[in-house]
Amino acid sequence: AARERMADPATEAGVEKLVDKETKDPEAKSSDTKKIYEIGDKVDGRCGDSFRLCEIISRRQIGGASEQKDGISSDLTGEFEYYVHFVDCNRRLDRWIGAEDIRAHQASSEGSKDNVGASTDSKCIPQRRTRRNKRKLQESEEGHGSISDPTLAKLEKDHEEATKVKNVDVVYIGGYEIDTWYFSPYPEECTKKKKLFICEFCLKYMRKRSTLLRHAEKCHLRHPPGNEIYRDKNISVFEVDGARNKVFCQCLCLFSKLFLDHKTLYYDVAPFLFYILCEADENGFHAVGYFSKEKSSTENNNLACILTFPPFQRKGYGKFLIEFSYELSRLEGKIGSPEKPLSDLGRLSYRSYWTRVLLRVLSEHRRPLSVKEISQMTFIKEEDIVYTLESLKMLRYWKGQKIISATPRLIEMHQQQLRSRPGRLRLDPDRLQYVPLAERN
């Protein structure tokens, strides 16, 4: 039986549905559907129950092909729909909207920049530029995981330009219909109908539901290929070698790119190991998320990409995968760190995990500890520890030295905040059967 359709990405990402005086006015909500907007125009587009400033990225005649910047169209008659990017929002909110959902841009009456604040996480909520928001914006733009290398910045810009319009709107997998977030380089012939059907076990993609049904009768895979290295009740983790299971891992990368903005490698999977988290039932092991890591990392990265599939988010699986990656680092005897830059959601998950671990260490050891000592205890890289302690206001500098300043009261205050959050899925190290790659024959 088909399960519940995923919510609209705007709702999933936490866009607050605001109704202001302008949107309550019927005249303000009306739009000239006959007007043809140009690519690059700034307009107000409907987002939930309100209108927000957005930029037109592409346009297409209803029933026709899309036209991006510098595109040439011989026929500009008929109705258009527009692919828009909401200013100061994550690209996962980009979408096609009809002319009826567009109106000429109206500047904010308050005089601020369109009454839109920059978003540093999954939410895109209009907000004032308070001191706290300015600090969060600076942290997002300049801090942990930022791109400072000019070459990398250019590659990032080129990548964004080439992938700015989603080529798949919806994927059907395992009974879920999921609205996608980003472009993924599936073959062009598979994306013409904007909907893909994917086998939940082998992850092969198809254009038609009937093809998927025929495939399901022949596909005997009921778990990811590779070795099951962890099982606790109905939760399992499989280790899959990209060199030995190339097609499966390529299909996994193509699928995950629909929900990861910064993932750029799709076909060169041989240098990577993939750790796939599954929920088990009588029908098999159903993938709910994964992370990948390089077999040999010159920078000791213990994680390359991480994703919890959208239907299974907010269940603690992301933090479980992060903890799992550090448990592998502990068994390997290597201090590790995720590959940078982190996505906005990845940054939040890692900061939460690092905070929990560091507070536990500081509460258990009342004697003064150095950043290096904590790194050796937790296998968290020193720069990640410094970043987290600074965000908790537990680090100060004296004569050029980093001094941890964490009173029992401050530690307890932060731990109390963590305890108020929903329970998390706990990793049981005794249930992990893992041999480091360097020790295998």
From TrEMBL:
Residues 163-436 form the MYST-type HAT domain. Residues 1-33, 104-153 are annotated as: Disordered. The lineage of its organism: Eukaryota, Sar, Rhizaria, Cercozoa, Chlorarachniophyceae. This is histone acetyltransferase. One of its GO terms (biological process) is regulation of DNA-templated transcription. One of its GO terms (cellular component) is NuA4 histone acetyltransferase complex. It is found in: Nucleus. The keyword Ubl conjugation does not apply. Belongs to the MYST (SAS/MOZ) family. It comes from Lotharella oceanica. The keyword Translocase does not apply. One of its GO terms (molecular function) is histone H4K16 acetyltransferase activity.
